[in-house]
Write a structure and sequence with these properties.
Structural class: alpha+beta
CATH topology of the largest domain: HIT family, subunit A
Radius of gyration: 28 Å
Distance between the termini: 14 Å
Helix content: 40-55%
Largest sheet: 5 strands, antiparallel
Order of helices and strands: HEEEHEEHHHHHH
Strand order of the largest sheet: 1-2-3-5-4
CATH superfamily of the largest domain: HIT-like
CATH class of the largest domain: Alpha Beta
CATH architecture of the largest domain: 2-Layer Sandwich
Number of helices: 8
């Protein structure tokens, strides 16, 4: 069963994080690596992390949506990430609206202080003074209660994680992936095509690559065994230690085109499996 997004703990459990390129001095990257915010409170959906505001928040309902890997502008996202960001922001906004009284949901992105793409999703309370609304909320001197902020974030994450949200549908479940993408690549490239897809939990692709490779190898073995049986002398007295080499040379000579086709098929399967394993481990999406 494919697990969905989950709350990350503060002990380093990332719930099977996707591989990510991070900057050591970037605060968002540190959160992506360690889940260090509000006691580790964060929620992962595919290539993105949702967490409370980095510094003190003037209102309880202030969440940030950011890519796990270091990206500084929205146009630097992959097409898949761009396609996932909008719906995710809408789901977070809907969950916020459902969990706390608010007159509006603010959505903004600046990146002036933290040079890592992040989208603020803010539930503006109905009673917020007019001179603190809009962009002025960023400079507000009021401070929300930390416990209330954390409790609201957990309710929002719980709603996103399992319950029907305000859009009337479940959030899309994303496969969890662990470790470096090289694990998947090496499994598909050096062990057997399809094993990297199993690690990425792309089961249909894994079955296709593994089954295709088994079929080609099986076809090769059947042909070799059949040709060997035809060429082996019936008189055992004529057998000698070097017969195997002689048979191999004869089989190769008479089946040159067949062996070339099998070799090309295996190379194509291996290359496709390696490329797909890399893309599957680094894309952060299904």
């Amino acid at each position: 069963m494919i697990p969905g997004p989950r709350v990350l703990s503060g002990t380093g459990n990332r719930g099977g994080g996707v591989d990510r390129v991070t900057e050591p001095d970037c605060l968002e990257c540190r959160i992506a690596r360690e889940g260090e915010r509000q006691g580790g409170l964060a929620w992962r959906s595919g290539a993105f992390l949702v967490h409370p505001r980095l510094d003190a928040s003037p209102v309880p309902g202030w969440l940030v949506v950011a890519p796990l890997r270091h990206v500084e502008s929205v146009d630097a996202l992959t097409r898949e990430e761009q396609a996932a960001l909008g719906p995710l922001v809408a789901e977070v906004a809907g969950a916020l609206r459902a969990e706390t009284p608010c007159a509006k949901i603010y959505v903004s992105s600046f990146g002036e202080v933290v040079p890592h793409l992040h989208v603020h999703v803010v539930a503006r309370p109905p009673d917020l003074p007019e001179d603190e609304r809009g962009a002025r909320l960023f400079t507000s001197g009021r401070r929300a209660d930390e416990a209330e902020l954390a409790a609201l974030a957990r309710r929002v994450f719980g709603r996103l994680d399992g319950a029907i949200n305000a859009t009337g549908r479940r959030p899309r479940a994303e496969p969890a992936r662990a470790g470096s993408p090289w694990r998947a690549v090496l499994l598909s490239g050096l062990v057997w095509p399809g094993l990297g897809q199993l690690l990425n939990r792309h089961y249909l692709k894994a079955a296709a690559f593994m089954g295709g490779t088994v079929a080609v190898v099986g076809l090769l073995l059947v042909r070799v065994v059949r040709e060997a049986l035809l060429l082996v002398p019936t008189d055992s007295s004529t057998l000698d230690p070097f017969l195997a080499f002689t048979l191999a040379a004869q089989i190769q000579q008479s089946n040159r085109v067949f062996f070339l086709g099998v070799t090309l098929a295996l190379v194509v399967l291996w290359v496709l499996a390696v490329v797909d394993a890399w893309r599957g481990a680094t894309s952060g999406q299904r």
